[in-house]
Amino acid sequence: MHILLTGGAGFIGSNFVHLLLKLRPTYRITNLDVLTYSGNLENLRGLEKDPRYTFVKGDITDEKTVMPLIESCDAIVHMAAESHVDRSILDSRPFVMTNVIGTQTLLDAARRAQSKNGGGAWMKNNRFVYVSTDEVYGSLPLENPELKFKETTPLETNSPYSASKAGGDLLARAYHHTFHMDVVTTRCSNNFGPFQFPEKVIPLFVTNLIEGKQVPLYGDGKNVRDWIHVDDHCEGVLTALEKGKAGEVYNFGGNNERSNLELTHEILRLMGKGHDSIKPVADRPGHDRRYAIDCTKALRELNWKPTRSAWPQALADTINWYKNNEAWWRSVKSGAYRDYYTKQYGGR
Ligand code: NAD
Ligand code: DAU
């Protein structure tokens, strides 16, 4: 099996490459990534000489780049995206370009592509996995803890990021419905683990604390997220590729709900820091209150379950990864990152 992976130099993509080459030693993977601020080839260091792995620098919105790559592969796993909600509030345009137009470009190229060795239409025999997000479902109230997102929950997006991801999600659905393309969609909750860009809350807070800085907690800190280890998500994407049913959506979550305040206290405890390290800051505009995932369908139909997400161990291991990889995040936390951070927090 030869997989075309988009966005493989990012956080989840690079973890997917490492996991796939370990779990499926006979597979090949081509990584198409334009290397935005969050794409980093350091995440893939050591793979340059692996004959199973190829890197192509290119943009998913460019049809001339994507068509020959699709025609030489057996499946597409589409992860490339603008991924950070706060950035989408500052400027939504790159989100629409990559997450909507980029997805449409890939789907349309896959629809028109021919299989290698004269095997007819590519989409007749090959699968397209769209990596979506639980944010497409919108927000749950704190008052009803029994409510969770199911695959049948209507899409009700609140941020420019989630709206653009839902655009790609609905296009993927439409290409299955209209053209009978073999599309499978995954919707996962908040990931944590190695190589996560330190704009996302866990690596931001952990690296700030290592640097002796405070951690900016939004609003009242009561917003809830369901945390899943990135390897559990990547295994979910792999099982969806191998065992999912065409046209279906699969939710993945960590069964690991925490408010941001609980998350922050846990990080402070594991890092031996006090509550004076918390800096309350203005809330994110339109901040979704709670995400909670019902992933019984993935359990039932894919035999998938999260096995690496349980806290405190998984969180402690992640903190240790950032402690042991200072050179990685210190180089990431410079340049373009600083410009963004200055815009976001006015230089605080
Ligand atoms: P990331 O920002 O770390 O990585 C995104 C990657 O996509 C980068 O390597 C970037 O260079 C690449 N990219 C961006 N625009 C591109 C373009 N036009 N052409 C080619 N490559 C491009 O993001 P992530 O956190 O690893 O998320 C990966 C995917 O998983 C996204 O689709 C995201 O919506 C989804 N997702 C993320 C989470 C999470 O918690 N991080 C949860 C559920 C779903
Ligand atoms: O749920 C899946 C989504 O999770 C993915 O689709 C997105 O790509 C990913 O970025 C993530 O979105 P969130 O907005 O939930 O993640 P973030 O790490 O930005 O924020 C997590 C929570 O922490 C959120 O409630 C906002 C809060 N937060 C975040 C930052 C960056 C803070 O309190 N302070 C901060 O500085």
Q: Beta fraction of the residues? A: 15-25%
Q: Give the spatial strand order of the biggest sheet.
A: 3-2-1-4-5-6-10
State the CATH superfamily name: NAD(P)-binding Rossmann-like Domain
The top-level CATH class is: Alpha Beta
Q: Looking at the chains present, what oligomeric state does this protein adopt? A: single chain
**What integer value in Å does the Rg equal?**
20 Å
Number of domains: 1
Shape: globular
Q: Main sheet, how many strands, which sense, barrel?
A: 7 strands, parallel
Structure description:
The protein has 348 residues and is α/β, with parallel strands linked by helices. It has helices at 11-23, 63-71, 85-90, 93-112, 122-125, 160-179, 201-210, 230-243, 260-270, 296-302, 313-324, 326-332, 336-345, and strands at residues 2-6, 28-33, 53-57, 75-78, 127-133, 182-188, 190-192, 215-218, 224-229, 249-252, 257-259, 278-281. It has a single domain, classed as NAD(P)-binding Rossmann-like Domain (Rossmann fold), CATH 3.40.50. The protein has 13 helices and 12 strands. The chain has a 7-stranded parallel beta sheet with strand order 3-2-1-4-5-6-10, with helices on both faces. Nicotinamide-adenine-dinucleotide is lined by residues 6-7, 9-13, 33-36, 38-39, 59-61, 79-81, 83, 98, 102, 131, 133, 165, 188, 190-191, 197.
